[in-house]
Amino acid sequence: MKRTGVVALVALATGVITVVASVLVFFFFHTTVLERSDVWDFHLTETRNGGVSAIRISGFCRHTALSVKDISVRRVDSEQVVIVRVFMSRRGTTGDFQVDVPVPDGVNEVRFGRLQAVIWRR
């Protein structure tokens, strides 16, 4: 094989390895937001937590290759918005979640996901 052929082969192999590594890193670290339509066994229960009204939301990510990474609740005007982030499953992680969302006076709706599906109204 000529020297230029070897160089081309090495360059091709390096490119393939770089692409594969990039894809693996992307899927390992990438997160996405769970939407209401992506939740199996969705439950919502009204509770009281320390004298403050709250709702408990629980469910399971229907994408079996994904696990819950974190859950955040942020207030936007008179709404609480629940964001559940999921990522590629790995050992010790699971797709189920449970979160208590405070609904003090002034909060009239609780929404879920980036699409902000209304899941509770006062």
What's a quick, concise take on this entry?
With 122 residues, the chain is α+β, with helices and mostly antiparallel strands.
Any overview of this molecule?
The chain is an alpha+beta fold and 122 residues long. Strands 1, 4, 5, 7 and 8 form a 5-stranded mixed β-sheet that branches. A 3-stranded antiparallel β-sheet has the order 2-3-6, with no helix packed on it. The protein has 2 domains: 1-30; 34-121, no CATH class. The chain is elongated and about 80 Å long. Helix content is 22%, strand content 50%. β2 (39-49) and β3 form a beta hairpin.
Which key features would you list for this structure?
alpha+beta; five-stranded mixed sheet; three-stranded antiparallel sheet; 1 helix; 22% helix; elongated
Total of helices: 1
Tally the structural domains: 2
The oligomerization state is single chain
Rg computed from alpha carbons, rounded to a whole number of angstroms = 22 Å
Question: Which sheet architecture does the biggest sheet show?
Answer: 5 strands, mixed
Helix proportion range: 10-25%
Number of strands: 8
Return the average pLDDT rounded to an integer. 87
Query: Low-confidence segments, ≥5 residues, pLDDT <50?
Result: none
What is the N-to-C order of secondary-structure elements (H for helix, E for strand)? HEEEEEEEE
Give the termini separation: 75 Å
Question: How is the topology of this model organized?
Answer:
Blueprint: H1 3-29, E1 31-33, E2 39-49, E3 52-61, E4 66-76, E5 79-88, E6 96-102, E7 109-112, E8 117-121
Parallel strand pairs: 5-7
Antiparallel strand pairs: 1-5, 2-3, 3-6, 4-5, 7-8
